[in-house]
Task: structure prediction
Amino acid sequence: MTEARGPAGRSGEAHARYAPGTPCWVSLMVHGMATTQEFYGALFGWEFRPGPRQLGPYVRALLDGREVASIGQLPPDRHLPIAWTPYLATADADRTADTVRLCGGTIGVGPLDADEAGRLAIGSDPSGAVFGVWQAAAHSGTAVTGMPGTPVWNELLTFETVGVAKFYESVFGYEEEPVVSADFDYVTLLVDGRPVAAIHGVGNTLPRDRGPHWVTYFEVDDLEETLSRVVDLGGQIISPARDSERGRVATVACPEGARFSLLRPDRRVPRG
Result:
């Protein structure tokens, strides 16, 4: 098992803790906190409450009273790419940060404490894709999954999988399950035999203005209706609805430009 589960929620699965290497949280840093909360609140039904004080203007998003994600404020003079960042669970953030550096990655923030919630670091892999590291204390991570408005999958888009997959395997101990295909460069990352994330090598089709980056997928019940709502709320459709191995999916962007995917899962596919 990749995580110890708490009692099942009324309409989702509650989590007690996440095994090391498992994506356990997602966070977004933006310039317009109020408008961003309005967008995601209307899109997913999220409510918000203040987060750890050390992280500055920062809120946690709640669904039915349970934490699912967070949104923070970028300083006005920081012009960084606006993107959702997945956090990967670890038992020791400091040791993981050291391993990231030893394996050719970088650590840009931390490790540092977030009140009593836990300890975090933010780094990037050798290709430049940004990810977080989370050592849980009072806050174990996303408190519920398996319902609309919750993260359901995370996938790294990069140039090619071979070297980058070795980095994540070395840092987090993943097993790898590559797709054997001459024209599809894709590796699923496993923890204890369970798929938790993936790496997709897309070569020169990677957007030049983005570079390698992680994409968070949020679950929805009705993909077409949600896409219509994205546009009505001031967002943008980047990639229209299509069928995939995990279900029906589309890629969109919020008004601040953060890209993410919407997934109506195929219930026959094992959850990541």
